[in-house]
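Colleagues,

For the teaching module next term, I've prepared a clean inverse folding example: a structure given as tokens, and then the sequence designed for it. I'd like students to try predicting residues themselves before seeing the answer, so please don't circulate the second half yet.
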């Protein structure tokens, strides 16, 4: 193998890797948009459920206690550390909650809702802090 063949092989690998990186960037962009849409839908569903629960007769079913407890635990953590920024996983570790991906994603949705309601701010991507 001479140097020209070697360089041609390297160029071919470079071109393939560049194309793959572009495909992955496109995929990340699509997934990020899908995640944002899904989280917004989740928040809308939660709000709808809350409004219906408030309008339902007093004999209706109350919200499941774990939802209230989880939100209250999150709010309490921010109240106890008002100047500190947290990521969802860090909150789980602080509160002794499960750190599996599904549980952390649910908390991310809750944090997004608390941000939209004005209780929290988002000083950086994936970081949340109590609004002062």
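(Answer key — instructors only)
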């Amino acid at each position: 193998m001479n140097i020209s063949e070697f360089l041609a092989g390297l160029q071919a690998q470079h071109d393939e890797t560049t194309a793959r990186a572009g495909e992955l960037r496109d995929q990340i962009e699509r997934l990020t948009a899908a995640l944002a849409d899904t989280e917004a839908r989740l928040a809308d569903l939660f709000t709808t459920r809350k409004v219906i629960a408030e309008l339902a007769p007093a004999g209706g079913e109350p919200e499941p206690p774990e939802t209230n407890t989880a939100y209250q635990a999150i709010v309490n953590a921010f109240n106890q550390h008002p100047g500190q920024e947290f990521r969802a996983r860090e909150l789980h570790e602080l509160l002794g909650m499960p750190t599996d991906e599904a549980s952390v994603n649910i908390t991310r949705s809750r944090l997004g809702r608390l941000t939209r309601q004005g209780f929290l701010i988002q000083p950086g991507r994936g970081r949340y802090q109590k609004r002062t």
